[in-house]
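Page 47, continued from p. 46.
Same chain as before, 607 aa.
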Amino acid sequence: MTDTLRKILDLLDPGERRRLSAIVGAMIVAGLLQTVGIASVMPFLAVVSNPSVIQDNRYLARAYEMAGFQSTGTFVFALGVFFIFVMIGSNALTTYTGWAAVRFQWRVHDLFSNRLLNGYLRAPYAYHLNHNSASLGSVLLGQVGKVTEGLLLPYCQILAKGISAAFIVVLLILVDPLLALLVSVTIGGFYAAVYAFVRKRQSRLGAEVFAAKRDRYLISNEAFGGIKELKVLGREAHFLDRFRVPSLRYSNAQAANALVGLLPKVSLEMLAYGGIVVVTLYLLRSRDTLDQVFPLLAVYAFGANRLIPSVQDIFTALTKVRFQAPALAELHADLQGNSGPARALREFEGSVAWRAANPEKGTLALRSRITFDNVSFRYPNANRDALSGVTLEIPVHQTVALVGTTGSGKTTLVDLLLGLFHPSAGRILIDDAELDEHLLWAWQKKVGYVPQSIFLCDASIAENIAFGIPEQAIDFEAVREAARAAHLESFVATLKEGYDTMVGERGIRLSGGQRQRIGIARALYHNPEVLVMDEATSALDNMTEDVVMQAIGELSHHRTILIIAHRLTTVRESDVIYLMEEGRVVARGTYDELIATSPEFRAMARI
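Result:
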């Protein structure tokens, strides 16, 4: 319990902690006002049932004299008005604190969601290679809500109801210590026994719901992602069968949790009805007259009316806390621990601070060459290097190609050049400056990248070319220029809505070649100095590939271009070709030189 609260407080920033403190302060005042309201009913009813009590009770007599009342009737009226105003004030403040708590919960939901997405997006590329995107989506869109609604808000409710209940118990003790002790021990003991009975079941059910919900996200994401192949192969039943298992686990666990939550409420209602009878009999035996019983019974009735729902709400909140604890553990690890997102946020904040303090060191000029100096790289948890002792140069304003069989290390080398990984050994030099975390931001602004598989948003062609730029900030002249360079303009001209044409989810309304050309235009939109093409023309037909490669050749006069290719016709005009095998560079030269000197290259060219 205390560990859960500590984790929640860890996740809040100082501003949110101050807001929480203010809400708790308002809850204390609201609880005090509720208690004053309950206490004020006793003198009101005592005077109504026996007006002579005004003279018999020194406090009432002093209030009567100091306020200058002339009749018992006006005094009773004043007591009634005071009682009404106190109850209105306490209920108004209670309503406000409830609204403030809910508003605070949603503020924190927004805060956590944005911080978590920020952490995921800034986490190292290796983190995403080892984490399923559906699992990350489940945490972002599901577990954040569970933490704020199932933990943060219940803790606020525990505070609010606990403070109110504590004040009411103190009042009842002042009125009749023995009876208050009996009632408190009975209700408290009952709930302690019930909580001890359900706590382990709540934890188990919470873990079951957490795991089942994650599996449902994963399976549905796989089904929708492969919908085309799924329908062609007729595999709908397979995914439905896979989905039914976690879906049934999820439903059963939620139903069991609802039942566990109902048991205390039903049991307490029976206890409350019996308690009213017991309290009435006790007061009748311990008091001499009904006019003494009536005010006390009213205080206990009003107190019970507030106390029992408060205790029920506290118990419900406690069960929610136990139920949602697994979600908090994962969220806390991602935002505060040493995981990829948490570490990425700290490193990003440090990088921003470093750039602000060293603006002159955050710039980078590429004038001569890019150099891989004896670079090696091994993926996390791998037992061998993906690259081993690679040394090569990419001269400025030349077209350099990497060729080799699948698994030779071409894409890994490109990922290192893009800054997605850091070398395990060796250096990457931009002219004479080593590419490190401080220069990475400036370097990536100079690079355009065209992957083999192009990701497209469900947005317009223009928005996909200017990927990540708000629609109102898009430079449409740059969009058209990039489209011309990618030989996309003639296709766009045939569309009724032109660059405003929607491409559908993941570009489903476009052909493979059209998607690829949008990807090339995207890379050119920012007018990069370095263009990296990873099998970028693989989806194009031979004629379109020739046209695009001719356009890229024209770009090489003022750009540095790195091409990865399987089809050697793509790299025939490259200035330098590096042949890679098992993570090493095994040959270097022009196309004709490699044909003449490299058997492996000749085999790839099928000569």
